[in-house]
Amino acid sequence: KQEVTQIPAALSVPEGENLVLNCSFTDSAIYNLQWFRQDPGKGLTSLLLIQSSQREQTSGRLNASLDKSSGRSTLYIAASQPGDSATYLCAVLMAGGFKTIFGAGTRLFVKA
Amino acid sequence: DTGVSQDPRHKITKRGQNVTFRCDPISEHNRLYWYRQTLGQGPEFLTYFQNEAQLEKSRLLSDRFSAERPKGSFSTLEIQRTEQGDSAMYLCASSFFTGGQETQYFGPGTRLLVL
Questions:
Q1: φ, ψ dihedrals at A24, nearest 5°
Q2: Which H or E run contains B60?
Q3: Residue A21: which of A92, A103, A100 has the closest Cα?
Q4: Do A36 and B109 touch (CB under 8 A)?
Q5: Residue A97 pLDDT grade (very low, low, confident, very high; cuts 50, 70, 90)
Q6: What is the pLDDT of residue B60?
Q7: CB contact under 8 A, B111 and A101
Q8: Chain B residues with CB inside 8 Å of A104's CB?
Q9: Cβ <8 Å between A32 and B44
């Protein structure tokens, strides 16, 4: 059974810091891994998607890496801003291509 | 393209009542997913459709839950005889799956409170 774990559960940093969010998964038979952002009471916004054959993806100040063999992914946020405050969720799409398993998320607060 | 929409956004009901939620996916997306999310947790997969066919249901989806996607467009999720444990955010997502990259686009969710 696939389990997705995100560490830390919560993080508070001053504005301008670079930070790393961690995601680990127990079953490496994944199709892809996706990072999402969720604002309070809202739906999810896709940030980055990494195919199982890829090692990393970048979008602006965000960089996500994937090490499928070790079951790990990281989301790197450069020069954090108060607007980055949200919950960040990691999700793996299982091989077979339909079932997505989410982690519980990391709640990020960036102080101005 | 107006994104994925869900209706209603909030629903308060009494235990034992039936409720129905609607999801309108991004047009031409062939996959549609339903998830349930409780406070402090990530979304949990409930079911998904490829076009109009419901291809997988989670064990979380008891026989009180039913989902349809007639004509492969909008979808409805019905909960019969609601229980307090059904209180959660119900999220819908859609995607265009081609066997390559598949990004799921989420709606704003329907928050259900069962009293």
A1: -130, 150
A2: none
A3: A103
A4: no
A5: low
A6: 79
A7: no
A8: 40-42
A9: no
Rounded to whole angstroms, what are the CA distances from A57 to B55, B58, B89, B100? Answer: 30, 30, 30, 16
pLDDT, average across residues A25-48: 92
How confident is the model at residue B2, as a pLDDT? 73
Quick check: A97 contacting B, CB < 8 Å? yes
Q: Which of B92, B102, B110, B111 to substitute to test the interface with A, most A CBs within 10 Å?
A: B102
Pair B70, B3: CB distance under 8 Å: no
Q: What is the sign, positive or negative, of the torsion defined by CA atoms of B104, B50, B42, B8?
A: positive
Burial class of residue B66 (count of CB atoms within 10 Å of its CB; 0-12, 13-18, 19+): middle
Q: Which two tokens stand for residue B46?
A: 């409930």
CA A71 to CA A27: how far, in whole Å? 7
CA distance B72 to B54: 10
C-alpha to C-alpha distance for A11 and A31, rounded to whole angstroms: 29
Query: Pairing between strand B44-50 and A100-102?
Result: unpaired
- Residue A31 has a pLDDT of 87
Rounded distance, CA A50 to CA A110, Å?
25
Q: How far apart, in whole angstroms, are the C-alpha atoms of residue A12 and residue A103?
A: 19
Q: Reduced to 3 states, what is the DSSP secondary structure of residue A23?
A: strand
pLDDT in tens, chain B (115 residues): 579 999 999 999 999 999 999 999 999 899 999 999 999 899 999 999 998 888 888 887 888 999 999 888 899 999 999 999 999 999 999 998 876 667 889 999 999 999 9
